[in-house]
Write a structure and sequence with these properties.
The complex is a heterodimer of chains A (211) and B (220).
Chain A lengths: L3 E5 L4 H12 L4 E5 L10 H4 L9 E4 L2 E4 L1 H11 L12 H34 L6 H24 L10 H15 L5 H4 L2 H11 L2 H5 L3
Helix pairs in contact in A: 1-3, 1-6, 4-5, 4-6, 5-8
Chain B lengths: L3 E4 L5 H12 L4 E4 L11 H4 L9 E4 L2 E4 L1 H11 L13 H31 L9 H24 L10 H16 L4 H4 L2 H11 L2 H14 L2
Parallel strand pairs in B: 1-2
Antiparallel strand pairs in B: 1-3, 3-4
Helix pairs in contact in B: 1-3, 1-6, 1-9, 4-5, 4-6, 5-8
The chains are: A alpha+beta (211), B alpha+beta (220).
Chain lengths: 211, 220
């Protein structure tokens, strides 16, 4: 069977989210480089795969699929019998996984991504960090993390006592916040968030992405 | 069996998104209003259900669930055998494409359209000053997104394929406000295939029912 092709970029958080999921599910893949710095994602060749011109996009046989959160949901269902079980054991558990996946997408990612973008990506592209924007988004993220702290004081992982897609979704951006933005205190100052972060970021499949 | 309870005001796009799915699946429900103006969603009783203080929240027996798009997925899965069939597609591949367009709605369609709805429909009502520069920026962004939708819908009757799915359903609330309440309806109506798709999905019984309920609510 042909390996799944992942069109993406190694420094793209969304790409890394998909690669981590493939590792967790023990699925073979081929990473096809889309060179973001040279604008490859906006060229006709790539736009034919993903008309929104963002990475990653996967090809699995006849299926072409984009949006990292949709891709990992597809992989979780397709490979349900192997690797890590990401969706819980009942419909109610699965629903809670979806709930916390949405929280990541709607409440955690917007401020977290803005911080990473301002501190890491904007300077890379020759611009300068908007400190006021960083401060505003740190404030927003602090409020969200306070709620996570409460949740994780009662539950080992976000959706329950099992590692799920919801936890996985947080890995790339949090990794950048802690390791590339100097914002590790957002995590380390919160006892249960910190314990959760230590746990999920030390999974062998996560470490593989950064060697 | 305990009836499903949905907490939230009908005027909230997230609440009507969840309600549209309950209606499509013909699930018996109770809609329990939450008074956002009075800050009911920030009171301890509500925060105990939804710690982010946002609407809607679903209670189905022992399960308490929030985030409208998660509610939509749950309802579509749990009640798969009743009401509109095929909301999640008929195969894993179809479901994947539906999920892709759910994410496009969530990450790419929702941010600029929500901004425009807030700035143009609600800010004036609530005496909040509008940010003209940002309105222009978001309108441009939203237009670019709609151009991609126009191409997609010229090749496919619905976003996920040949059949109406939760991907189309997710778009109903924001698009309703864009067309009815922002003075920017031409963003939708000027695009042949987007407009045809909008006419189609907004004339479904579920959305007609929500429109009726909104009218009745506004008459109070």
């Amino acid at each position: 069977m042909a390996a799944i092709k992942v069109h993406g970029y190694h420094a793209s958080m969304a790409t890394v989210m998909v690669l981590c999921c493939l590792n967790e599910k023990e699925v073979e893949y081929e990473l096809v480089l889309v060179d973001l710095p040279t604008g490859a994602h906006k060229k006709p060749e790539y736009l034919a795969l993903n008309p929104f011109g963002v990475v990653p996009t996967i090809q699995d046989g006849d299926l072409t699929l984009y949006e990292s959160r949709a891709i990992i949901r597809y992989l979780a269902k397709k490979f349900q019998g192997q690797g890590t079980n990401f969706l819980g054991s009942t419909l109610s558990e699965e629903a809670l996984v979806y709930q916390w996946c949405e929280v990541e997408g709607q409440s955690f990612n917007p401020p977290a991504f803005s911080i990473v973008s301002q501190i890491v990506f904007v300077p890379m592209r020759g611009g300068s960090t908007d400190e006021a924007a960083v401060e505003m988004n740190v404030e927003k993220l602090e409020k969200v993390l306070d709620i996570y702290e409460e949740r994780l004081s009662k539950s080992k992982y976000l959706a329950g006592d099992f590692f799920s897609l919801a936890d996985l979704q947080h890995l790339p951006c949090t990794h950048y916040l802690v390791n590339a933005c100097g914002k590790g205190d957002l995590i380390s100052s919160r006892k249960h968030v910190n314990a959760w972060w230590e746990d999920i970021s030390s999974r062998p499949t996560w470490k593989i992405n950064f060697t | 069996m305990a009836a499903v309870k949905l907490y939230g005001p009908l005027a909230s796009t997230a609440t009507s998104r969840a309600l549209a799915c309950l209606l499509e699946k013909q699930v018996e429900y109770q809609l329990i209003p939450v008074d956002l103006k009075k800050g009911e969603q920030k009171k301890p009783q509500f925060l105990a259900m939804q710690p982010f203080g946002q609407v809607p929240v679903l209670q189905d027996g022992a399960l308490t669930l929030f985030e409208s798009r998660a509610i939509v997925r749950y309802i579509a899965e749990k009640y798969a055998a009743q009401g509109t069939i095929g909301l999640l597609g008929k195969s894993l591949a179809e479901r994947a494409v539906i999920e892709q367009w759910m994410e496009v709605e969530s990450q790419t369609y929702n941010p600029p359209s929500s901004f425009l709805v807030f700035q143009l429909a609600f800010a004036p009502l609530w005496g909040i000053p509008q940010n003209q520069a940002e309105i222009v920026k978001n309108e441009k962004k939203f237009s670019k997104v709609l151009d991609v939708y126009e191409k997609r819908l010229s090749e496919s009757k619905y976003l996920g394929g040949d059949e109406f799915s939760i991907a189309d359903l997710s778009h109903l609330p924001n698009t309703e406000y864009i067309v009815k309440a922002t003075g920017k309806s031409e963003l939708i109506t000027s695009r042949k295939y987007v407009n045809a798709w909008w006419e189609d999905i907004s004339s479904r019984d579920s959305w007609k029912k929500i429109r009726e309920m909104s009218k009745a609510g506004n008459k109070k």
